[in-house]
């Protein structure tokens, strides 16, 4: 790592799966000697961290992370091709009105072929939950409005630019300020996406920045989640390396407050710096406007880290205009010190932070919170069960997912969610009807509970059906969990 980056993140553990052979992984488990491992970069002078790395539990977790990353690198192209073909087939079915429609259109010579860049093309995420309209029963002064809008924006961020623009302008009556593809210096790819929307119907105006989460067939995004590398920022704490890389950590510069944006490659724009500048420009023109940061899955982690960097760089003007950070199915981002730093800054600038977790969603329960790893959640969590009843807690139940005590309850809950998918439209109306793809994911949940629970469908339902007044009221209170 370059000297400049060491000065910025002087303590770190960087995993390099491309430089690890399969034999190296076997040796990692067999030997506790961590010195001169070319696929693990860490400052040699930090003996305390080196001792931690030598422990078998830590080596086992590093082994799993490297193994899965190497597998994802190996299957990157076929995984992407499977996702490409699946999306094309699902959209082909949709625009031709199903199998019968395909048959009759074929007879008429009027088959319609999907185009990935058009406003009618949906991602797998968008097909699993086809809702694009905001809930008209939730008005601007409703406690649920900002949270519900945030979740819809987070869901929309998975779609292409044409689809996003049409939805924002024609269905939401708002302005699309930006659709972004940002560079990841460590993957050498533009693998971080975000959208920026302006709600001009509220006074003051509201800007929503939504980071895209992990797409089902995007191997690069899954590598970001699985990578347990970490970097320590002085006076901030240790932070998940995959998320830092996705937000714009640069190999030779770390996190300087400003970078030279004028002479750089336009295809190599970094998420944190570009979004921050865009917010500066928009908020300068609209003195009363506020903004929200949001995201689902990986996107939620990026929203949290973006806030942390604003605080680290002492961006007081932006932090004073930050209304809230609302995340959905967000994984753990940093250690206890990072959580303390965030709690202090959120309180100082009176920023609302609500972390939403639905039922047995597996992603908020990773990386593991135990003695072998340093990652921990901070702040209050709004947890919803499979009846969409909310509860404000410090930590979601079964915080590490793999508890033996929760095996039977998780599978019973998965059975109930499958049954619910058939009956919910008759109870709550057609807006809650689940398509055949979502029902298929419910079947997957019978094998791996927690996978379908991570999809946006249940989070959209929770933001519409749950109550949020208590979550908002308890944000700055030191209280134990209470039921809604």
From TrEMBL:
Sorted UniProt keywords: Hydrolase, Membrane, Transmembrane, Transmembrane helix
Gene Ontology molecular functions: triacylglycerol lipase activity
Transmembrane portions of the chain: 60-76
Gene3D superfamilies noted in UniProt: alpha/beta hydrolase
Signal peptide: none
The organism's place on the tree of life at top rank: Eukaryota
Fungal lipase-type domain sequence ranges: 208-369
A GO biological process held by the record: lipid metabolic process
Pfam assignment, any one: Lipase_3
CDD domains tied to this protein: Lipase_3
Name of the protein described by the UniProt record: Lipase
Naturally occurring in which organism (per UniProt): Quillaja saponaria (Soap bark tree)
Higher taxonomy: Eukaryota, Viridiplantae, Streptophyta, Embryophyta, Tracheophyta
């Amino acid at each position: 790592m370059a000297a400049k980056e060491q000065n910025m993140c002087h303590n770190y553990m960087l995993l390099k799966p491309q430089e690890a052979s399969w034999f190296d992984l076997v040796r990692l488990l067999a030997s506790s000697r961590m010195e001169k491992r070319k696929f693990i970069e860490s400052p040699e002078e930090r003996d305390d961290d080196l001792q931690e790395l030598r422990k078998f539990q830590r080596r086992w977790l590093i082994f799993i992370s490297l193994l899965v990353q190497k597998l994802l690198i190996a299957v990157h192209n076929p995984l992407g091709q499977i996702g490409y073909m699946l999306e094309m087939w699902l959209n082909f079915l949709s625009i031709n009105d199903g199998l019968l429609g395909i048959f009759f259109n074929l007879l008429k010579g009027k088959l319609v072929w999907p185009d990935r860049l058009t406003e009618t093309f949906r991602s797998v995420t968008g097909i699993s939950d086809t809702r694009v309209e905001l809930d008209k029963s939730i008005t601007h002064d409703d406690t649920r409005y900002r949270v519900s809008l945030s979740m819809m924006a987070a869901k929309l961020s998975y779609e292409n630019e044409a689809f996003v623009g049409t939805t924002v302008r024609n269905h939401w009556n708002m302005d699309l300020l930006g659709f972004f593809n940002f560079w990841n210096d460590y993957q050498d790819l533009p693998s971080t996406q975000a959208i920026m929307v302006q709600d001009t119907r509220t006074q003051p105006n509201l800007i929503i920045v939504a980071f895209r989460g992990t797409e089902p067939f995007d191997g690069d995004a899954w590598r970001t989640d699985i990578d347990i590398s970490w970097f320590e920022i002085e006076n901030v704490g240790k932070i998940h390396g995959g998320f830092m890389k996705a937000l714009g950590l640069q190999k030779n510069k770390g996190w300087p407050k400003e970078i030279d944006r004028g002479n750089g490659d336009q295809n190599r724009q970094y998420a944190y710096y570009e979004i921050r500048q865009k917010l500066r420009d928009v908020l300068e023109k609209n003195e009363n406007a506020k903004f929200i940061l949001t995201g689902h899955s990986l996107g939620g982690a990026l929203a949290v880290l973006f806030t942390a960097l604003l605080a680290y760089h002492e961006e007081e003007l932006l932090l004073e205009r930050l209304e809230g950070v609302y995340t959905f199915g967000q994984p753990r981002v940093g250690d206890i010190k990072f959580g303390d730093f965030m709690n202090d800054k959120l309180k100082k600038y009176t920023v609302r932070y609500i972390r939403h977790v639905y039922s047995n969603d597996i992603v908020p329960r990773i990386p593991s919170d135990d003695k072998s790893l340093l990652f921990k959640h901070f702040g209050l969590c709004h947890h919803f069960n499979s009846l969409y009843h909310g509860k404000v807690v410090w930590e979601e139940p079964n915080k590490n997912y793999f508890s033996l005590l929760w095996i039977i309850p998780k599978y019973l809950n998965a059975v109930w969610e499958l049954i619910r998918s058939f009956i919910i439209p008759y109870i709550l109306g057609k807006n809650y009807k689940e398509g055949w793809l979502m029902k298929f994911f419910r079947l997957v949940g019978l094998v791996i509970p927690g996978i379908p629970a991570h999809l946006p469908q249940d989070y959209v339902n929770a933001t519409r059906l749950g109550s949020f007044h208590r979550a908002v009221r308890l944000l700055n209170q030191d209280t134990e969990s209470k039921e809604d």
